[in-house]
Amino acid sequence: MPALKPTEFMGRVVWLGVNQDRAAALESTSRDVLSLPFGGPPEESHSGVTRRSCSRVSRQYPKGTEIANTRQVSIVSEEDLALIAQDMGLARIEPEWLGVSMVVAGIPDFSLIPPSSRLQDDASGTTLVVDMENRPCHLVSAVIERGYPGIGKRFKPAARNRRGVTAWVERPGEIALGATLRLHIPDQPVWPHLATARNG
């Protein structure tokens, strides 16, 4: 029995990019096509089948532990970027500032899509698996602050539940600008004890 449900929610790819040297800078550089082998975009600083654990999994592993890399790609929505900019009092938030790999348009509340959802290119079948919601961080605030002094600190509250998701490659291939990604979601109910677990 299939465990994933194709939906009619479609995302159009409106921006692609890579961050080639995370140690040097957070910002990403735009691309027309993203090559996606199993390890993620080869040029991307977050690529690889494994990675070193970071703050997002600090309660599970000591920092620097080698773990499977479920953070190969960072995806945000055009709609969420517009809302972040609006709340910050800016005309626009550029995807480069966030160091993202991809911007999609057309999927509402994109940052809250369920973990383990798939984003599948309708034409090529290239598929990304959503790991989890991304979290706003002070590093983006610092990038914005350089261009807009006094504004950078507004990023974290404005980007709460709008920072997009992290994902990894399940079926390799390429995704190009203008591609259409269909959202597939896990066909299971919400765990009844979720609120208790979160508050415990």
Could you give a quick summary of the protein structure above?
This is MOSC domain-containing protein. The protein is an alpha+beta fold and 200 residues long.
Descriptive report:
The structure is a single chain. The protein has 200 residues and is α+β, with helices and mostly antiparallel strands. It has a single domain (4-199), classed as PK beta-barrel domain-like (M1 Pyruvate Kinase, Domain 3), CATH 2.40.33. 18% of the residues lie in helices and 33% in strands. It contains 5 helices and 12 strands. The longest helix has 11 residues, at 78-88.
Q: For the report, how would you describe the main beta sheet? A: 7 strands, mixed, barrel
Q: Span between N and C termini?
A: 34 Å
Work out the number of β strands.
Answer: 12
Q: What class would the helix/strand composition place it in?
A: alpha+beta
Strand content bin: 25-35%
Can you give keywords for this protein?
200 residues, alpha+beta, M1 Pyruvate Kinase, Domain 3, two-stranded antiparallel sheet, 5 helices, globular, MoCF_Sase_C, MOSC domain-containing protein, Pyrv_Knase-like_insert_dom_sf, MOSC_domain
Helix-strand blueprint:
Elements: E1 4-18, E2 29-31, E3 33-36, E4 50-52, E5 66-68, E6 73-77, H1 78-88, H2 95-98, E7 102-105, E8 118-121, E9 127-133, H3 138-147, H4 155-158, E10 165-171, E11 173-176, E12 180-186, H5 194-199
Protein name: MOSC domain-containing protein
Organism: [Roseibacterium] beibuensis
Region (Disordered): 32-54
